[in-house]
């Protein structure tokens, strides 16, 4: 049996424990991306990716323009959503 630190309170708990006895946090819960900087960079990445896809579409460099426009718009929407999650979470 090894001891690990609780991610919430820092208490040492067994690696077999399902919850921290002090705070009740699940030590094996999936850790999501919650850093505002990571969300902002991810959003900027998707916006640039979508804008590039739309530029390629409007330049006539793809055969299936409907599909390219759809994925370009989806990239932009996902990007704005990632950036907006900073304010949605509050």
Summarize the structure.
The protein is mainly alpha-helical and 90 residues long.
Overview of the molecule:
The protein folds into 2 domains: about 1-30; about 30-90. It is about 50% helix and about 5% strand. It contains 2 helices and 2 strands. The chain has helices at about 35-60, 65-90; strands at about 5, 10-15. It has a two-stranded antiparallel ribbon with strand order 1-2. The longest helix is centred in the last third of the chain and has 24 residues, at about 65-90. The radius of gyration is 21 Å and the shape is elongated. The two termini are about 40 Å apart. The mean pLDDT is about 85.
Features:
90 residues; mainly alpha; 2 domains; two-stranded antiparallel ribbon; 2 strands
Sheet having the most strands: 2 strands, antiparallel
Decide which structural class fits the backbone.
Answer: mainly alpha
H and E string: EEHH
Spans of at least 5 consecutive residues with low confidence: none
Q: Roughly how many Å apart are the termini?
A: 39 Å
Which geometry do the CA atoms define?
A: elongated
Helical coverage, percent range: 40-55%
Record field, number of beta strands: 2
The radius of gyration computed from the alpha-carbon positions, rounded to a whole number of angstroms, is 21 Å
- The DSSP helix count reads 2
Q: Please tell me the overall pLDDT.
A: 83
Tell me the count of domains: 2
Spatial strand order of the main sheet: 1-2
Give the percentage of residues in beta strands: 5-15%
